[in-house]
Amino acid sequence: MFLNGATSAASLFTQQGRKGINQDAMIVWENFGDRSDTVFCGVFDGHGPNGHMVARKVRDILPLKLRASWEVYIGNDECRENNISSTRSMSSEETSSVNLNEDSKASVGFEERVKHSETFTILKDSFLKAFRIVDKELRLHPDINCFYSGTTAVTLVKQVGY
């Protein structure tokens, strides 16, 4: 969405100020990464003579780079997850003498914490990689002089259920 508006996930609004060209850019991408439970949001506040160009360029390419990076990590993570699942199964068989009610409560909490921790690590690594790639591409872009211009980026990925 590149215009002012609202969806069930978010609303966007920007207005031209009195200082000159509006250097703000923003995006809400629902179903991010082909996941119906995931939304990418970003606000980009450009600064400097070409800040508006930098903010818009980052808005346009960052989500794509993040998505590509995330998919690489998820592909690698699925291999690790299969190994972790088999390890968890062995652990639960070995501890069969423990009260099943208490064991199931503890393992659900543990598994949820591990899952959230793994998801956070994947997203963090994906964001860092995507920002590095975007920064490098901006420096190489022939039409945007980033020497005195840039953007502040505030971004998030929201997954329903987390």
UniProtKB/TrEMBL annotation:
Keywords: Hydrolase, Protein phosphatase. It comes from Musa balbisiana (Banana). Residues 9-162 form the PPM-type phosphatase domain. The keyword Hydrolase applies. GO terms for molecular function: protein serine/threonine phosphatase activity. The keyword Protein transport does not apply. PANTHER family: PROTEIN PHOSPHATASE (PTHR47992). It catalyses: O-phospho-L-seryl-[protein] + H2O = L-seryl-[protein] + phosphate; O-phospho-L-threonyl-[protein] + H2O = L-threonyl-[protein] + phosphate. Its EC number is 3.1.3.16. InterPro entries: PP2C (IPR015655), PPM-type-like_dom_sf (IPR036457), PPM-type_phosphatase-like_dom (IPR001932). This is protein-serine/threonine phosphatase. It comes from the Eukaryota. It is an enzyme of class 3 (hydrolase).
